[in-house]
Amino acid sequence: MNRISVSKSLVDTFYQIMEVEKGYLNRELTSKEISRRTGVKISLLNSYFKEASGLKISQLIAMYRLQHASMLLRKGFPFKTIFKLSGFNSNYELLQTLNDIVK
């Protein structure tokens, strides 16, 4: 398999997990799980996505979760419940992720 077909396969699988399955809503979704599902080592995944998007896999997952949390806030959901509905493990993790992005 050449680099282009591997890249397309990775992007297709990532799209399937994140967009179709809404995997980011699952608190158990991690870089390790994406690696397992794609059959590609985490270091190679991070390298590919960092080159393509400027972000590592864990950062991309966090961005999806933050976008979902933002949508819920706009819809008027109570802040205390948003972390659960967005795939975060706690309000602290949500706030820490937001803080990391803002820095």
How is this structure best summarized?
The chain has 103 residues and is mainly α. It has a single domain (3-102), classed as Homeodomain-like (Arc Repressor Mutant, subunit A), CATH 1.10.10.60. It has helices at residues 3-20, 31-38, 42-53, 57-74, 79-85, 91-102.
Describe it.
This protein is an all-alpha fold. It has one domain: Arc Repressor Mutant, subunit A, CATH 1.10.10.60. The chain is 73% helix and 0% strand. α4 packs across α5. The model has no long low-confidence stretch (mean pLDDT 90).
Question: What's the layout of helices and strands?
Answer:
Layout: H1 3-20, H2 31-38, H3 42-53, H4 57-74, H5 79-85, H6 91-102
Show unreliable segments.
none
What is the tally of helical segments? 6
Order of helices and strands: HHHHHH
User: Per the principal axes of the C-alpha atoms, what is the gross shape?
Assistant: globular
Distance between the termini: 39 Å
What would the average pLDDT be, to the nearest integer? 90
Number of strands: 0
Structural class: mainly alpha
Which CATH architecture is right?
Orthogonal Bundle
| Strand residue content | under 5%
Report the oligomer: single chain
How many distinct domains? 1
Integer-rounded radius of gyration: 14 Å
**CATH-defined fold name:** Arc Repressor Mutant, subunit A
Q: Name the CATH superfamily assignment.
A: Homeodomain-like
Helix proportion = over 70%
CATH class: Mainly Alpha
Main sheet summary? none
Descriptive labels:
103 residues; mainly alpha; Arc Repressor Mutant, subunit A; 6 helices; 73% helix; globular
